[in-house]
Specification:
Aminopeptidase; seven-stranded mixed sheet; alpha+beta
Length: 166
């Protein structure tokens, strides 16, 4: 089945989405579109051409600034006191689609978007706050590195993103 990843819009049925996590469902339903309109964060949804309004999964990206002392020392010494970055603010897959590779597909799409931003503006890395150890383990599969002061905050250097798509 050919799936599409597109920006969240009014045409998407946010109310029916369920990933099994109330806070993620509520973010999509109540906040994601407004954040997009206000320029706070952008949410992208996975849909099928057969049912373009039904959301199968979503992810949210936001710009952020990170203090270098949060980074592993080997990276911190390469930068000044604060670095521009992108944060994967949320990633969720509908319960009936979990375990089918949709999360990986969204992650790769998010990384491509981060790479495009880097080409135009320059950023130092891609960050994510994992909800728990299971989520952190999932992100480590993509090369994310836990931050020294909090293993649920992870960092993917832009060099790693560039290398993945070279």
């Amino acid at each position: 089945m050919k799936l599409r990843i597109e920006p969240l819009s009014r045409s998407h049925d946010r109310k029916r989405f369920d990933c099994g996590q109330t806070d993620l469902n509520q973010y999509l339903y109540r906040t994601a579109r407004q954040h997009g309109e206000k320029g706070i964060a952008k949410t992208f949804v996975v849909v099928s051409p057969d049912a373009p309004g039904a959301i199968l999964g979503f992810f949210t990206l936001a710009a952020c600034e990170v203090r270098v002392e949060k980074l592993p020392l080997s990276y911190a010494k390469k930068f000044s006191s604060r670095i521009p970055a992108i944060k994967l603010a949320r990633l969720a897959v509908a319960t009936d689609r979990q375990g089918a590779g949709l999360g990986q597909r969204m992650m790769l799409n998010a990384m491509k978007r981060v790479l495009r931003v880097d080409r135009e503006l320059g950023i130092a890395g891609f960050f994510v706050d994992a909800k728990d150890d299971t989520a952190a383990s999932y992100y480590r599969q993509f090369g994310f590195i836990p931050l020294p002061d909090n293993p649920l905050e992870l960092f993917l250097p832009m060099a790693s993103v560039r290398k993945a798509f070279a």
